[in-house]
Write a structure and sequence with these properties.
Length: 350
């Protein structure tokens, strides 16, 4: 493929994906607003690590500081613009990139949340594509250094799809390209995939941000583990009521997860057994935290309004309140404002 690829947001997921694409021979330029990060990549290469020594690579992709983005006007137009910034930065990042798109170019949302509509409002639905890092967890641990925090070997780590659900030539090309990074599914169910990922994030991200717990610590705390299940249950029911065709949610059957959160003992036992088995396995780093937990530790703004906040808003719109999600939003914002430290006790009353 001779397509020009620009990745805007070279953090955990964007950096891991874009760095591997560059390593695999694609024409990739990384843009990031953190100056030290770009300078470290230019000086030393991009150190990308995993759970095993064999996963380590050090590609040297082309890079641009945010202040250098106007250089794109002097170069080949962008065929594939991958937006991998926080959801609250989606519009301005898309606005910056759209002026440099090739006539047949398009924008890919490789983000945690549901941002395709925001992107389409700026570039049009025909130039909007979705990509989901469904089971990929990584962390930007320092300038020029990203670490994958889950084991390789899972199926369908990435999902890519058109907003209209048809399988097109460009989505097949995009899937093949991302498939050189890790396993990639070409889906005709982008919106169901998106809501399913939102359920996962709604169960885990805000909980880690408010509690300060890693993924394994979160799973081993009885109250917080069951809170996560209730959060997932409510999100599933709202998604079902909206008509989404839901996929597996962190390995759980959606209906089983929903019933587990509603008090079905058999379903709860099944879901808890899976959660605890994963917590006791070696497929995930002991200190792995979802992105919002990482953001809270780094003092960054969280995406709580774009994850649990969206679940609350969508539930209200269809007459299905989501009180646990609303209380979690409030708890995360208290920590974010510095009113209380991140600690498990913040969630014991939910």
């Amino acid at each position: 493929m001779d397509k020009r690829v620009v990745v805007f947001g070279a953090g955990a997921i964007g950096g891991y994906t874009g760095g591997h694409l560059a390593h695999n021979g694609f024409d990739v330029t990384l843009i990031d607003p953190w100056p030290e990060h770009i300078e470290a990549i230019r000086r030393d290469g991009f150190a990308i690590e995993g759970l095993t020594r064999e996963e380590f690579i050090r590609p040297r992709p082309k890079t641009l500081h945010l202040t250098e983005a106007q250089q794109l006007a002097k170069e080949k137009p962008i065929d594939i613009a991958i937006v991998s910034v926080k959801s609250y930065d989606t519009e301005w990042a898309t606005t910056l990139l759209r002026q440099y798109l090739a006539p047949g170019g398009y924008v890919v949302s490789l983000q945690n949340c549901i941002n395709e509509e925001r992107i389409a409002a700026l570039v049009g639905w025909g130039k909007t594509v979705g990509a989901i890092a469904a089971t990929l967890s990584a962390e930007l641990v320092g300038p020029g250094r990203v670490q994958r925090t889950v084991a390789k070997g899972a199926a369908d780590v990435y999902r890519v799809g058109e907003v209209h659900g048809r399988i097109t030539r460009r989505i097949e090309e995009l899937g093949a390209m991302i498939g050189t990074v890790d396993s990639c599914k070409i889906t005709d169910n982008l919106w169901g995939e998106r809501w399913s990922k939102l359920c996962v994030n709604g169960m885990h991200n805000g909980v880690s941000a408010a509690s300060g717990l890693s993924g394994k610590e979160r799973a081993r705390d009885d109250h917080i583990r069951r809170l996560c299940i209730r959060l997932g249950s409510a999100a599933v029911r709202i998604g079902q009521a909206c008509g989404y065709r839901l996929e597996k949610i962190a390995g759980h059957d959606p209906e089983t997860l929903a019933r587990a959160g509603e008090g079905d003992r058999r379903a709860l036992d099944e879901v808890e057994s899976r959660i605890l088995a994963e917590a006791n396995s070696n497929t995930r780093s002991d200190m792995q935290r979802p992105s919002m937990g990482q953001d809270m530790r780094k003092g960054r703004r969280t995406e709580i309004d774009f994850i649990n906040g969206v679940i609350v808003e969508q539930g209200a719109a269809i007459g299905r309140p989501a009180p646990a999600h609303a209380k979690l939003v409030a708890a995360v914002k208290r920590v974010e404002r510095g009113e209380v430290p991140a600690r498990p006790e913040n969630l014991y009353g939910i």
